Fold this sequence. Notes:
Elements: H1 2-23, H2 28-40, H3 57-60, E1 74-75, E2 81-82, H4 85-96, H5 108-111, H6 136-146, H7 160-167, H8 205-215, H9 228-231, H10 256-265
Antiparallel strand pairs: 1-2
Amino acid sequence: MNSRRAALASVLALLAPSVAAARQGLDFDVYRETVEPIFIRSRGDFRPPDPGNPACVMCHTWQTNTRLALETLEEDADGGVFWTEDQSRRNFEAVSRLVAPGDPDNSRLLRKPLAAPAGGTPSHTGGKFWTSRDDPEWQAIAAWVRAASGPAPAEGEVDYAFFRACVQPIFINAVPGSLPCTECHTEGGSAFLQGIPDGRAVWTEEESRRNFEIVTRLIAPGFPAQSRLLMHPLHPDGGGDYAHNGVRRWMSRDDPEWRMLAAWVRGERAGADCRR
């Protein structure tokens, strides 16, 4: 009986992504036939005379700190690569989080690889694939997004009281052999915390509110593994970012502190009780 329940749970977990995306009005069949092949498409070699940018899958199938986390590709006997339908459904869920249904111009999926003068984001680590919105790829994805009828998925909320009582102290309390986060992150380009004046050990209410406002820009509510706040200080062996100028605060995602933060990001922790 227990094995049957486990099997049912696995099936439901697999179906959950397609159900969530369907609520947004996004069409899975169109996605698989039209959108997903774009992620595999070659964009030229790194070497002259045809330098180009790598295919999306060159980064987005193994990097864990990206919002577009795609499944590892399968390979057929002839060396061709593909995703199974189950893998495509999981990809569909990840991609759907980057889409504002009915609104291509405000969809991260369409803005990151688009040149900034054409309305794209200022930068994209993998390069800019589209110089304008007239590009056939951009138009194909935009048509899929435009056809969706539902509202964009609501982002989860994180609790301020828990942030002030349980999350904020992490930035002050250093792990053995390191400096506190406040040593580097209160000034300059890496600042996301208010400085604490001499004579005080903690932030005021007003300063804490400001910290909360900035720190929440470093998380993806509901998705700990897509949140820079959690992935940057995490050791790469645990799936963290490859570069962090400070020491690695957590060696794995099993660290109690990391798990506490992950629960907060998922919206599971609230109030001023830090126990558990």
